Amino acid sequence: MFAGSNTKMTHHPALLGLVALATLALGAPAARAHFSGETAHDELARMAAQALAAEQAATIRGASTQTPAGRETPKRAGPLRIAQVRTEKRAALTTAGGEAGTPGAAGIFAAFAPAVRVRWDEQFLLVESNGLPAHRMMVGITAWQQQVPLPQPYTGKNAWQIPLHPVVATTPVSIKGRFLRGAIALAANGIPIFNPQNNRGEVSQEIGELDEWGGHCGRADDYHYHAAPFHLQSVVGAGKPIAYALDGYPIYGVTEPNGAVPAQLDSYNGHETAALGYHYHGSTKYPYVNGGFHGVVIEKEGQVDPQPRAMGVRPALTALRGTKISGLEGTPGQTPVTLTYTVNGKVASVNYARVSEGGWTFRFVGADGTTREETYRAGGGGGGGGGPPRDGKKGGGGGGKDRKSGPPPERGEPRPGGGGDGAVTTQTYEPKRTGNFVLNSSAVATGGMLPVEFTGDGASISPPLEWSGAPAGTKSFAVIMHHFDPEGKTKWYWTLYNIPADVSGLPKDVHGVGTLGNNSVTRRAGYAPPHSKGPGEKTYILTAYALSAPLQIAAKPAEVNRDVLLAAMKDVILDSAELKVVYTRPAGASEGAGRGDAKDGKAKRKATT
């Protein structure tokens, strides 16, 4: 139901009985709404907690219990924890705007109506918005990926879902190095809040990626925050949450509702008080928002699930060095927009406007005065991903595009993303890395351009590698080469394991050393050369692992993919080293040119020792 409708939410009889009992005991009218921070509310919360203290402290499974008032609690379906029951009771005591039946969490979002709409069912508060805040965006960013804010369809089945009855996790989880994709919380103005780390693991606030409000745009031109939006406090009101984490617990500002400094915060920026129960606080230093999840969440493909999908209309671009965004005028989707920036002190701009439902026109004015115009159509899998077939052809990254004039898009330093093909893996893993173990290549320096010889546009052979500084006790080595696609999923090109401990490198086109696993391009054992379908620079990551034992893997080598190999060696990794390389397809290279088959591992050369 939507806030303000005549449809009412049915309360649990036991909850209503508890509310009535506590209210009469206080001598207050039963219809009056109480909010956190009020004396009456605090007393109600205390009495509710006392009434529930008699219930089991572990898991409630079906059996009825008697409350102190003698009122029977009906049987409950499935396991619930006391912390969850307590939250349900408290939610019944708190209403938004005084309207009976409205979840308490709805109040902060209602402050931004009609731009933000709420509805709810028995489990979730559903929050709808177009993903655009009322404040100015992007100004002040100095590390820019060339994305701009576009409206997003966070509505209907693509709305945000906030659990109304959060459940305490048996083992709370940290977001550090985890949940690097998608949102971890939702601000009161309907703008998602992402992990303070970007998808490369860097803290966005500390490297110039965020604007004056703590936000920027992602690969799908979706605006989101990476830090607590403290500026919303003046709108939602003093003492109210400014956001909700996706586990259902509220996020308050830097102080408690009564102005006190929060005491005894846990490692996730949260704690429990008698008045509010468990809640998080924003902070002005890492982790800036909730540093983890006290409540139960589902993790899928590196993000909290479910959550809405941002819909981009154009390919994700790369970082543009030496830039600073100085202005953004206009309202995306309503009026033409001009984003102004400087490149090494020279002014440039991006001008864009909606030209039809799902269609956008962009006019790029470079710092050298050159211009180009492009028109994009929605439905092409924005953010650089592949889209659905169109006119009998497979859609390219980011929607249909009609370039009218001017030079190709500006390109800067590489970042994970871009084209490529084949299967994907969603597993992320951060192995031990001391810095003493080093990986190099005689063919390419770290961050350098991978010679065409080692790609699908050349001889399609594996590159040479050398490593040094392996820790004492190393019994074998393994090598993986992978690449992040535009959605943050991982494609792998080379899995090689059980390399003998006395080997310190691999020659180019290596054969007969170690055991070859498969790749995501051909699904066969062997090296698959990078053969990106999209334009621009792509980053490929070679990782060497020093292991304390040879690997015993029951699966056939052709069935050993990146996930299988990571799982097999995760407990025996002594150290690891990484080498990042970049590849850009030569101008005029055809899709089928030079595609080499994955090397089958027949013994032809020996490794260097």
Task: Tell me what you see in this structure.
By secondary structure, the protein is mainly β. It has four domains: 92 residues, no CATH class; 181 residues, no CATH class; 83 residues; 146 residues, Phosphatidylethanolamine-binding Protein, CATH 3.90.280.10. A hairpin with a 2-residue loop joins β21 and β22. The termini are far apart. Strands 10-9-13-14-16-15 form a six-stranded mixed sheet, with no helix packed on it. Strands 20-21-22-23-24-27 form a six-stranded antiparallel sheet, with no helix packed on it. α1 crosses α2, α1 crosses α3 and α2 runs antiparallel to α3. It is built from six helices and 35 strands.
Q: Numbering strands along the chain, what is their spatial order in the largest sheet?
A: 10-9-13-14-16-15
| Termini gap | 69 Å
CA-atom Rg in angstroms: 27 Å
- Total number of domains: 4
What portion of residues is helical? under 10%
Number of strands: 35
Poorly predicted tracts of residues? 1-98, 380-399, 402-428, 590-609
Largest sheet: 6 strands, mixed
Which structural class should the secondary elements be placed in?
mainly beta
Please, what is the average pLDDT? 76
The global form is globular
- Give the oligomeric state: single chain
Total number of helical segments?
A: 6
> What percent strand?
25-35%
